[in-house]
Design brief:
This protein is mainly α and about 200 residues long. The protein is built from eight helices and two strands.
Length: about 200
């Protein structure tokens, strides 16, 4: 049955061109888009029906390790996309705090401002931060350093004092994090930098 159908198809591809270009054009115009007309093409004295098809890329079968790495990268993309906006918030707040503090002269006024600012900041983002995973927290620490050129430890040290910085560093260490972690876009953080670049350029 299949051979009979193929024979009919070949006959049509041979007969259609014999009826002239007008007939071929009419046939094309009258057929639905999902049908294709084979055209006779002669190469090296041999005429065969042909049709142009889209290019197909053939790649080797992906092994378990490669699949694991791909899923690991996809998780990294999801985590960076979630925490990157918060690093921009920190950068904006960092600039805002510095601009405001420069206009203040009294130490008591500065401390009260920082206290009120912290309370307002926690009120806005505490719930979001609570729902972050450890991996997302580590990435956020790196991105804060990327955006502010200051580690999280230094920010706490400068605005809350050495005691607070040491305390929170100890807590971070208990969860496998490091507030002193610096961003290395050309080293261990190159994949994070790649994801951020794609986000900034609208590719993600």
């Amino acid at each position: 049955m299949l051979r009979w159908i193929l024979n009919i198809a070949v006959v049509f591809t041979v007969i259609m061109p014999l009826n002239g270009q007008d007939t071929l054009k009419q046939a094309r115009d009258s057929l639905p888009g999902r049908f294709y007309i084979l055209e006779n093409v002669t190469r090296d004295g041999v005429t065969m029906p042909e049709i142009e098809i889209d290019e197909v890329n053939v790649v080797k079968k992906v092994g378990f390790i490669q699949r694991f790495q791909w899923w690991k990268y996809r998780r990294l993309v999801q985590n960076v996309k979630k925490v990157y906006p918060y690093s921009l918030v920190v950068r904006g707040k960092f600039t805002e705090i510095n601009d405001t503090l420069q206009q203040m002269e009294g130490e008591r006024e500065r401390k009260q401002f920082l206290k009120d600012f912290e309370a307002d900041l926690f009120g806005q983002y505490e719930d979001d931060i609570k729902h972050m995973t450890l991996s997302q927290g580590k990435i956020l620490i790196k991105l804060i350093d990327r955006e502010t050129q200051n580690t999280s430890y230094k920010l706490i040290h400068d605005y809350r004092g050495a005691v607070s910085a040491i305390f929170w560093q100890g807590i971070a260490r208990l969860f496998g994090s490091n507030l002193k972690a610096e961003y290395d876009p050309y080293g261990e953080d190159y994949l994070i930098e790649k994801v951020v670049y794609e986000i900034e350029n609208g590719q993600l």
